[in-house]
Amino acid sequence: MCISQTQALRKRSSVSDASTTGRRLQSTSSHSTVGEFTAKTTSPKRILEKHDSIDARKCLVAQAGLENFIHSITAPLDLTLPKAVRFNMNGNGRMQTWEDVYMAEQVYTQCLGISKRIYQMHAFTHEPDRKFAYFILEEHNERSLPFLPGFDFYVLVFTYYNDNNEVTAVDVQYDQLSFFLHCVGLAQMHAWFMECVVTPFAIVWAKAYSKSGLVNPFTFMLQLVLFPVLLMYYLEVL
Q1: Using CA atoms, how far apart are residues 53 and 101, in angstroms rounded to an integer?
Q2: Per residue in 60-102, pLDDT tens?
Q3: What is the DSSP pairing of strand 132-143 with strand 151-161?
Q4: DSSP states of the chain as a string?
């Protein structure tokens, strides 16, 4: 009798310890646990602290045209738009005023045969401590020419503001190759080629490379140099 009671108490204790440990790794606003790990610049504790300080909310904004959309998305955080802004367009274009941003958007949409753009945001993540917010921008693009297909596209937008709630910088990131492939109607063909031709070959190469035990930047760069040389030699022999 005593033995069975002792075993039962031990089981309860182990379950209690496990649940306590799990509770320590849980945020107050989430039921998902954070794994145990080590890293140079972060930890489970820091991740939980960041999670508790983040304001993530649903917020629907849908507008035709970039200028209308930008003025609408500032409302949830009471942000204002001064004339000057550091606008980084995927690292390929840097503009300093909102006027230039709106003008550039109008010009390149006409050049790409886009007649109408519906911009949407359904949720955003806000980090007040960093004065920083980001969201996924959804674009619905309609075309001006009948042989050009319409398409939807997704863009990651980072917004920074100052103590006066003025937007100071915007960083827009997206897959530029995919965007232009959609514009010319080659996206599906490219997706098929990468999935059916390139990916099987890449998986076979990765498995063989991993088993060789020589995975490092030097051998990888060496392969990038040798592969085209050997391919050209093989074609000349044929």
Answers
A1: 32
A2: 999 998 999 999 999 889 999 999 999 998 888 899 999 999 9
A3: antiparallel
A4: -HHHHHHHHHHHHHHHHHHHHHHHTB-TT--PBPPP---SS--HHHHHHHHHH-EEEEEEEEEESHHHHHHHHTGGGT-B--SEEEEEETTS-EEEEHHHHHHHHHHHHHHTTEEEEEEEEEEEEEEGGGTEEEEEEEEEEEESSTTSPPEEEEEEEEEEE-TTSBEEEEEEE--HHHHHHHHHT-HHHHHHHIIIIIHHHHHHHHHHHHHHT--SHHHHHHHHHHHHHHHHHHHHH-
In total, the chain counts a number of residues equal to 238
Token pair of 136 as six digits: 């996924």
Q: What is the pLDDT of residue 176?
A: 86
| Structure-block tokens of residue 231 | 């391919």
pTM of the predicted model as reported, rounded to 2 decimal places = 0.66
* CA neighbor of 183 nearest in space, from 156, 146, 137, 148: 148
- Strand 114-127, strand 94-97: pairing: unpaired
What phi, psi does 215 have (nearest 5°)?
-75, 110
Pairing assessment for the beta strands 132-143 and 84-89 based on DSSP bridges: unpaired
Distance between CA atoms of residues 112 and 130, nearest Å: 36
